[in-house]
Amino acid sequence: MKKEAVLHIPLSQYAYAHREAQREEYRLTLRIRAAKGDIQACRVCYGDRVDLQEPIRMREAEMKKTASDDLFDYFELTFAPRFTRVCYYFLLDDGKEKLYYYSRGFCRVMDCHRTEYFQFPYIRREDILQIPSWAKEAVLYHIFPDSFATGKQRIDTAGKDGRPLGGTLRGISENLDYLEGLGVTCIYLNPVFTAHSYHRYDTADYFSLDPSFGSREELAAFVSRCHALGIRVILDGVFNHCGPDFFAFRDVRRHGEASRYRDWFYQMPLPVHYCDPPEYEAFAYVREMPKLNTGNPEVVNYLCRVGVYWIEETDIDGWRLDVANEVNHDFWRSFRRAVRRVKPDCFLIAEIWEDAQPWLLGDQFDSSMNYPFSLLCRDFFAKRKLSAKEFDEQIQKLLMRYPKDVALAQMNFLDTHDVPRFLSDCDKDKRRLKLAFFYLFMSCGIPSVFYGDECYLEGNTEQEYRAAMDWDRVKRSETIDLSGWIALRRTHKALTHGSYETVYAGKDDGIYVFARTYEKERALVCLNNSEQKRELPRRCAPFFEKFAGQEKKAPVFLEAMSGDVFFL
Q: How wide is the angle at C-alpha 303 spanned by C-alphas 225 and 286, nearest 5°?
């Protein structure tokens, strides 16, 4: 047995409590990792850690192998323990030997006291993940405000106020019928507050909308109209840093040591020398973006008021928080408590490009921007660097990073305002983009569409990938019709709440088949990411036999660069 590969971490993504909406009782999920192909069977033995009997009464249950990546297998069990304090250990069998695995390691005979077992001290309702119920079923449409619309299916590209484009809140509002037609249920807007530059990530006034975009009253009316259509609205909050015109920064530049705001900034040598590169801490060494001191109680209170203000004044439904991984954790805990007090189902998304596990423990964020997902899609669908097998292994690794509810709430996308357009990565091959979109909507997580991707927008530079929406293509219906896939997602809970199980992932044929299962519903998703028509492998036959007699027959072949889904 490869003991060095075995891993279990209590109170983590390997051991977490949750409660499904339709069930009153709490459930516990336990996972254990082992070397790939090493363990043949795994059982968990669990009991009440304060059982009045001695020795403690233990129960046993078989664990199921639910995932495999390039190096490891993952075994999992979800159960209702029927008591709130749980201790447990594992029995591993590799076909040659059986070993117990507990807090101190491995043994052949389990004769230690219960206090040495793995512990889940108490299943407390306050510590259960509280992700808004609407979030898992959301379909996001991501809009860069300056580039989307100034009116009904049009965008003014002449520029105004020194900005390269001229999108407005009114323009977005006049095109809500387009978004509703796609099936969008949530709009995410890049920054809309008064700022120094067109992208508005250098905020000047957190309590006013940029005049070129609209007013507070217009935003409130816009959100109200969205809600009437069943669409929620998320704003972009930039709290790691401010802009050069922010009142506190201007005061510090003007008064230096005498400024009452000198401690509002993180490591700000005085007097302030406004130069490149800056002598003070700033976002990415950009002098126009001085870093705020979110460890200062005054700053914490100010920014929490910002978060609450826009919920109270305009009824927005959530925040996407910029550069979340460079802000102290305690600030995010304070921010979460503040906004959740006024809107309990406020959805919080962190901009974190890497593993976001420390921010997704239930006390800070509900979701993060899943850049690893987009990079895998780029390498599999666009660049063809990965085989289906390699792609699946990396996807499984992503899914095992987090508890299931967190994985289901990750913000998945193909591209954003910060990276090249996916079609450009595809060398302009529209088939690859379309197949990647199909996977986006069938996969595990919240799908997010960056405006214009459905219109085949391209771009490798910032100016290009933030270019104007192509409304002419919309008028000519020269777009990817996302509405069908979105409708499937909104209709079938297997695609929004279901588990993710690999059925087949080819090494060199481009065929990828996986299943999404929720309660009694099962979705079987088939993709052919190759240039040839492919016959489905025989190992898929047992799954497809279940579809016999249905109106939609299971396929024998998949056309090149195509995908399909079947529901049971």
A: 100
Domain ranges, residue 92: 3-127
The band of 21, judged by pLDDT with boundaries at 50, 70 and 90, is: low
Helix axes of 430-442 and 483-491: crossing angle, nearest 10 degrees? 10
Please check whether residue 119 lies inside any domain of the structure: yes
322 catalytically annotated = yes
The answer to the question of residue 541 being in a domain is yes
Torsion (CA) 470, 477, 226, 341 in degrees, nearest 10: -70
DSSP assignment string, 27-91: EEEEEEEEETTT-SEEEEEEEETT-SSSSPP-EEEE-EEEEE-SSEEEEEEEE--SSSSEEEEEE
Residue 159 predicted with pLDDT over 60: no
Give the position of tokens 């990079």.
Answer: 375
Any domain includes 353: no
If you ran DSSP here, which 8-state letter would residue 93 be given? Answer: E
Amino acid, single-letter form, for residue 422: F
366 classed as catalytic: no
Question: pLDDT tens digits, residue range 104-117?
Answer: 999 999 999 999 99
Catalytic-labelled residue, pool 48, 202, 236, 322: 322
Three-class DSSP category at 18 = strand
Looking at the structure of the chain, the number of domains it has is 2
Q: What digits encode the pLDDT tens for the residues 231-272?
A: 999 999 999 999 999 999 999 999 999 999 999 999 999 999
Q: Which of 69, 351, 392, 415 is catalytic?
A: 351
